[in-house]
Specification:
4 helices; single chain; 7-stranded mixed beta sheet; globular; alpha+beta
């Protein structure tokens, strides 16, 4: 298995077609943003799409982004669009993407990462803690989780 960053990969169209097969409305929105080249405009210029792959298969994906569906807010960065295809669930594959995000956050000297979700009990497995409730852009309440990043002392 390997983690590929969408904007750095050579086969964007291939992986975009794999993302399109996601059966989740947020995944469809991610596909739309990427296919219309609006992703960075919406979530931030330094944002990334990370994909966990095995050979030609897309197992899981998520974003590491400046903004998410909680706006306006000063909280940043966000893990968003976290999805694992049904046939791969139950193996903690999302943790491999989270580990990669932690490496990026550490290099960026980021101390905290946020996640907006309606799930309870999913992100706690990966060291996230409930932070507070906030309304998303549609006005709906969302659970905000925070993950602390341990930075090395200078």
């Amino acid at each position: 298995m390997q983690v590929i960053e969408y904007f750095s990969c050579e086969r964007k169209e291939y992986w975009l077609a794999k993302i399109q097969k996601c059966d989740w409305s947020a995944g469809a929105f991610l596909y739309e943003l990427l296919s219309e080249d609006r992703f960075k405009e919406v979530v931030g210029e330094t944002s990334k799409v990370l994909m966990l792959t095995e050979d030609e298969e897309l197992i899981s994906f998520c974003t590491y982004a400046e903004k998410d569906d909680i706006q306006p807010t000063e909280l940043t960065p966000w893990i968003g669009f976290a999805y694992t295809f049904p046939q791969y669930r139950g193996h903690h594959y999302l943790g491999k993407l989270f580990a990669e995000i932690e490496k990026i956050a550490t290099a960026d000297k980021v101390k905290e990462i946020y996640i907006s979700t309606n799930h309870t009990g999913l992100y706690e497995k990966y060291g996230c803690e409930f932070y507070r409730m906030m309304n998303d852009m549609g006005g709906e309440p969302s659970r905000i989780y925070k993950k602390q990043i341990k930075l090395e002392k200078d």
